[in-house]
Amino acid sequence: ISSSQHQMHSFLDCLNSGSLPSKFIFTPENQSYTSLFFSSIQNNRTLLNSPKPLLIITPTLESHVSATVLCSKELNIPLRTRSGGHDYEGLSYTTTSSSFVLIDLHKFRSITIDLTDNTAWADAGATLGELYYSISSQSGNTLAFPAGVCPTVGLGGHFSGGGLGMMMRAYGLAVDNIIDARIATASGEVLDRGSMGEDLFWALRGGGGASFGIILSYKLKLLQIPPKVTVLNIDKLLEQGAIKLLAKWQQIAHNLDKRLFLRVVLQVVDDENHKSSNKTLMASFQSLFLGEQTELLTLMAESFPELGVKSNHCVELSWIRSVLYIAGFPPGGSLKKLLDRKPQYHDLFKTKSDFLSVPFNVDVWEAISARLVGQNEPPYVIIDPFGGRMDEIGVTETPFPHRKGSLYGIQYIKTWEDPGVETARENIDRMRNLYKFMTPYVSRDPRAAYLNYRDLDLGRNANMNASYSEASVWGEKYYKVNFRRLAQVKSKAENIDRYANKLCLALQGLLN
Ligand code: FDA
Predict the structure, then answer these.
(1) Is the C-beta atom of 204 inside 6 A of ligand 1?
(2) Which of 56, 66, 86, 451 to mutate to test the pocket of ligand 1 (most atoms within 8 A of CB)?
(3) CA nearest 4: which of 70, 40, 55, 41?
(4) What sequence ranges are listed for the domain FAD-binding PCMH-type (predicted)?
(5) 412 near 435, Cβ under 8 Å?
(6) Are 212 and 183 in contact (CB under 8 A)?
């Protein structure tokens, strides 16, 4: 019997004696094991060279989570926690060590809305689509919650890193609207805000998934939403003056009415005016406005007349239908689409992120455009305006530090189809080169990054004994001044229980 089989059997024995019913436990022999393992994986690149879990546990009760944690601790076998499986580097289901157990929370996903005080308790294994659907259907479309745009993203990972979306200029991030949480600690104990204390509660709101224990559920403050909102999409090519529009857009988008979120997606497309293989840059201006179309048209005419927004670029609809539209589905289609947990994108990809505190001028836009158009298989780039409510929340109020002064967040995304190692290497190199090219134009000291757009190129701890200064290499990029407090919260948790370090093995750095 191999050592991994021995570990698996020991874990099974432990779970049985902890009375976890066997229907929640999947061994590699189980018929559903493989489909379950792959069910929510978004980035197949991350599977290269990674072992599969000894067991997959699918809890439905808090006590199942605690029992799994206690066995992991007793047997010294690391756990990985997966909610929605969207981690860009696959940290929720891969490991560099040989054996681990996967706790997959997809069945742990109830959502309870309380309309007496406009709050919700949502389990970590629920997806954003399930959350938005429940809020909208139960409140009669009067309440909403500000978080990310992709319906299949899991709450557990997303809320652990911040959670930004199209309503952040009006309402901030998901973490700015979390008012309580329940967590299973390394000792198997379940704590809420009252019993965990404010330091740990602070750290849970953006300080990194898998860092402090297994988050079970969150209490959310729901927000009033007008009956009609308006979405807008308008594409401009280089030949249609995209550069000047981009330069103007970046002067104003972080300063607009806070109900108006106007982002840009840049991609290289075929230039249809040239019949040859010539390429051009397309800038898509995409917006969510928390109000009616007539008011949006007036605002756009006043602040950005050059874009030439007309009513045919806009769609007025309910907030929940705007969620469907922004996620790429027909806005009139079935809202049940939001409940589909099957990954919308099942890709190989690499992403990186940046922040801007100074808008690009026309020369910089020209240089970026030439670089993207001239590059073989360039990535696409999403640029989100901050400002508005984001400016009103202090840098240290939550671990997410990119507040006043961070005018824009940038995400670079490169996808490919060939699963070969060589293709992955080429594409990762392309991304690294573009990132290097962007250095003079983006934030510095530190060059900031967004935890939810996790990028292991920024660094990771070599082992469990990494020092604070070694970890700060990547930690300060994600967290700036907040990294020190996160490390302090973490070390306090470790003093309570040394095992916390191992439980949290999945984290990029605080714990490994
Ligand atoms: P996953 O389950 O992979 O977990 C991510 C990390 O959190 C892992 O380290 C994991 O161990 C840990 N974790 C998960 N559940 C936990 C729990 N219950 N307790 C403790 N730790 C836990 N971001 C954004 O801000 N806005 C957006 O609009 C989008 N859009 C988007 C679209 C797509 C297609 C992808 C792939 C990703 C995004 N993201 C995003 C990024 C997303 O927020 C980020 O990847 C989240 O970590 C995903 O959370 P999941 O629970 O799905 O991931």
Answers:
(1) no
(2) 86
(3) 55
(4) 49-225
(5) yes
(6) yes
Q: Which tokens in the block code for residue 208?
A: 């990194």
Distance CA 397, CA 201 (A): 11
Q: Does the beta carbon of 91 lie inside 6 Å of ligand 1? A: yes
What is the per-residue pLDDT across 268-289, written as a single tens digit (0 to 9) for each? 999 877 655 689 999 999 999 9
Nearest Cα to Cα of residue 87 among 469, 466, 510, 451: 451
207 CA to centre of ligand 1 in angstroms: 13
* Whether complex ipTM tops 0.85: yes
Q: How confident is the model at residue 490 (pLDDT cuts 50, 70, 90)?
A: confident
Q: Strand, helix or coil at 125?
A: coil
User: Could you report the per-residue pLDDT of 30-58, keeping only the tens digit for each?
Assistant: 999 999 999 999 998 988 778 899 999 99
Total-model pTM: 0.96
What are the CA-CA distances from residue 69 to residues 213, 216, 235 (Å)?
9, 13, 50
Higher pLDDT, 508 or 418: 418
Please give the Cα distance from 418 to 9 (Å, whole number).
37
Task: Give the relative orientation of helices 468-479 and 482-496 as an angle to the nearest 10 degrees.
Answer: 130
Inform me whether the pLDDT recorded for 338 exceeds 50: yes
- Going from the Cα of 451 to the center of ligand 1, the distance in angstroms, rounded, reads 10
**How crowded is residue 141: how many other Cβ atoms within 10 Å of its Cβ?**
17
Half-sphere exposure of 383 (CA within 13 A, CB side): 23
Alpha helices in 162-261 (DSSP H): 168-171, 193-196, 198-204, 242-252
- Residue with the smallest CA separation from ligand 1 atom 32 is 150
Q: What average pLDDT does the segment 247-260 reach?
A: 98
